[in-house]
Design a protein that fits this description.
The chain is mainly α. It has one domain. The longest helix is centred in the first third of the chain and has 35 residues.
Length: 91
């Protein structure tokens, strides 16, 4: 087993988790401010966004058991960025 390679993947996964977690918090705050300033804010829409995002992250991180973690998180981040501002136009 190549320990240097596995350590590299683990370190990347840790950095990616750190970045994804704080970007999630920043994105939720930014969406909150946009909705608030445009007077489209409802408690129900914001709570739906928070619970949907947290549920998806819990689903992904509960399956982090192999070295395929990094690619799995890349797929998760792509899905989240793809649906970033969709709810602003649906309210």
């Amino acid at each position: 087993m190549n320990f240097r390679r596995s350590g590299f993947i683990t370190m990347n996964a840790f950095k990616y988790f750190h970045t994804a977690f704080f970007s999630m918090i920043f994105n939720l705050f930014w969406k909150f401010m946009i909705i608030l300033f445009h007077k489209f804010f409802t408690i129900r829409a914001f709570l739906f966004e928070v619970t949907q995002r947290l549920a998806f992250y819990i689903f992904i991180f509960s399956r982090m058991k192999t070295n395929g973690t990094f690619s799995l998180l890349c797929i998760a981040d792509y899905r989240i960025k793809k649906t970033h501002f969709n709810h602003l136009f649906e309210i």
